[in-house]
Design goal:
Largest sheet of chain A: none
Number of strands of chain B: 10
Structural class of chain B: alpha/beta
Number of strands of chain A: 0
Number of helices of chain B: 10
Radius of gyration of chain A: 21 Å
Largest sheet of chain B: 6 strands, mixed
Strand order of the largest sheet of chain B: 6-7-8-3-9-10
Helix content of chain B: 25-40%
Largest interface: A-B, 17 and 27 residues
Strand content of chain A: under 5%
Shape of chain A: elongated
Order of helices and strands of chain A: HHHHHHHHH
Number of domains of chain A: 1
Number of helices of chain A: 9
Distance between the termini of chain A: 35 Å
Oligomer: heterodimer
Chain lengths: 247, 252
């Protein structure tokens, strides 16, 4: 029953979030702010994690492809497939769920307990829409760029580690990352990231918006936001995989 | 004018507001007073729709607020200014942005007109030149004054104040009280103040409702309250030795 209560309240909140904006110009300004707040500030962590993961995947692939029957360009091929299909969308979004999700839930939760959301409501502002819509829109706009950047940096990281460790040559790695390339997989990954952006921001906002109590509850909301966003990311990743790649 | 008629509120199995009726007059400082936990803040929150009314009516110039849909409520709320107990200023915005916020949302004023209005409101609450400060950089009294500036920025018809003097020293409390009273009279606003500060009651109590155990126990004004024979109100007003000595029955 508790689950149905939360699902029902989540969709009722979304109904309020997607009502017509009261002042479009203010909303656009907020969306730009959120693109910076959610996306641009995440660039360092995205870059660091992607480069390292690309390197790790390449070394592990080289270790696994230790057979004369398998060509060495398979190292680059494996790194590319792993980065595009799973890492740069799913794993990256799991990491962003931790950073962005907890940030959103604690920000909105703190606003709730300090009566700032009540103040918005009293002014006649649709607080759900004003606070949450720009975050959802901002994340859905910027996440695809982060994912594409992550793919690129992951492959660069793989190249650096693969070549410098002697796991493969520069030619083999570059040949590998171009071999049997299917562009739709990039689109698939971007599609996943847009879905995950929506899930992270909306679920985290939901937990923040319905915070009640004090600092302890804000912490709990933040934790719940990360936990449930992560679970939903994995669930939807499974659905996407079955729909587009599974047989 | 705001009128509440037979409003009730129950939390769980505890009825905190029982059949309360009262008329809040324009141009007057209307006070809701009572002991902590008597239901006065709940009444205020029901009036602005932060709590649902179980039964009864809240009439804004004859329009029953709880019966309105969300859009209707938002329209009424555009005429409301509210001063929260903690100020409820937006942490991420400067003082200027906080006061300008309702103007950004609901008016088509130019940038210059908004700035002029913001400066006027800040001047009104004696915060001129503090435009670029953030709430974290303000003292408690300044936060309250800043919140008052934001509450009046959009020329409200109704001003709600929840414990405007809590946590303030007596001198700053008087400044806040005077500001509220001046603004109320100047713009003919219907002002509703929830308080248990007796200084405020005696200073600005034009129209007072005393709430006791969730009920409207007594109504009157600041001159009548000191001569009350109502036992519960008497105990509330003269709870402190200071009040008994200075304004007690023999002295009053």
């Amino acid at each position: 029953m508790n689950l149905f209560f939360h699902i029902g309240r989540y969709f009722m909140l979304l109904y309020r979030v997607f009502k017509k904006p009261q002042n479009l110009r203010v909303y656009i300004r907020q969306i730009i702010f959120e693109i910076d707040n959610i996306g641009i500030t995440s660039l360092p962590i995205v870059a660091i994690i992607s480069i390292f993961m690309g390197g790790i995947i390449t070394i592990q692939a080289a270790y696994a492809v230790d057979s004369p029957l398998v060509p060495l360009y398979a190292v680059g091929f494996t790194a590319r497939e792993s980065m595009i299909l799973e890492f740069s969308s799913t794993i990256l979004c799991l990491i962003l769920a931790g950073k962005v999700g907890s940030n959103i839930a604690s920000e909105i939760g703190a606003m709730r307990i300090s009566e700032q959301i009540d103040a918005l409501e009293i002014m006649g502002i649709n607080s759900a829409s004003y606070l949450i819509f720009p975050k959802i829109a901002g994340a859905m706009i910027i996440f695809p760029f982060l994912v594409v950047l992550s793919m690129f940096l992951g492959l660069v990281g793989g190249y650096i580690m693969g070549v410098s460790s002697g796991a493969c040559t520069s030619y083999e790695y570059i040949f590998g990352i171009q071999a049997f390339f299917m562009p739709w997989k990039v689109g698939y990954s971007i599609g996943k990231s847009v879905t995950f952006a929506f899930l992270i921001t909306s679920v985290s906002s939901y937990y923040g918006y319905y915070t009640s109590g004090g600092a302890l509850e804000v912490g709990k909301s933040s934790t719940n936001a990360v936990v449930y966003s992560s679970i939903l990311i994995l669930l939807f990743s499974l659905i996407y995989t079955n729909l587009f790649i599974g047989h | 004018m705001i009128e509440i008629r037979n409003i009730n509120k129950t939390f769980g199995d505890r009825q905190v507001v029982k059949n309360v009726s009262f008329t809040f007059l324009p141009g007057k400082t209307n006070l809701i007073i009572g002991e902590s936990g008597c239901g006065k803040s709940t009444i205020l929150k029901m009036m602005v729709g932060l709590h649902e009314v179980d039964s009864g009516e809240v009439l804004y110039n004859g329009q029953n607020f709880p019966a309105l849909n969300m859009d209707g409520k938002q329209e009424v709320r555009k005429k409301i200014g509210m001063l929260f107990q903690g100020g409820a200023l937006f942490d991420s915005q400067t003082l200027e942005e906080n006061v300008r916020f309702p103007l950004d949302m609901f008016t088509s004023m130019s940038k210059e007109e908004k700035l002029e209005r913001v400066n006027f409101c800040l001047e009104r609450v004696q915060l001129v030149g503090r435009n670029k400060l953030y709430p974290a950089e303000l003292s408690g009294g300044m936060k309250k004054r800043a919140a008052l500036a934001r509450a009046i920025a959009n020329n409200p018809s109704y001003l709600f104040c929840d414990e405007p003097n809590s946590g303030l020293d007596p001198k700053t409390s008087i400044v806040i009280d005077d500001l509220i009273q001046d603004i109320t009279r100047e713009y003919n606003i219907t002002t509703i103040i929830v308080t248990h500060d007796m200084n405020s009651v005696i200073e600005i109590g034009d129209n007072i409702m005393f709430v006791y155990k969730g009920e409207n126990w007594w109504t009157g004004d600041k001159s009548q309250i000191l001569k009350t024979t109502n036992k519960e109100l008497f105990d509330f007003v003269f709870a402190s030795e200071f009040m008994k000595q200075v304004l007690g029955p023999k002295q009053a």
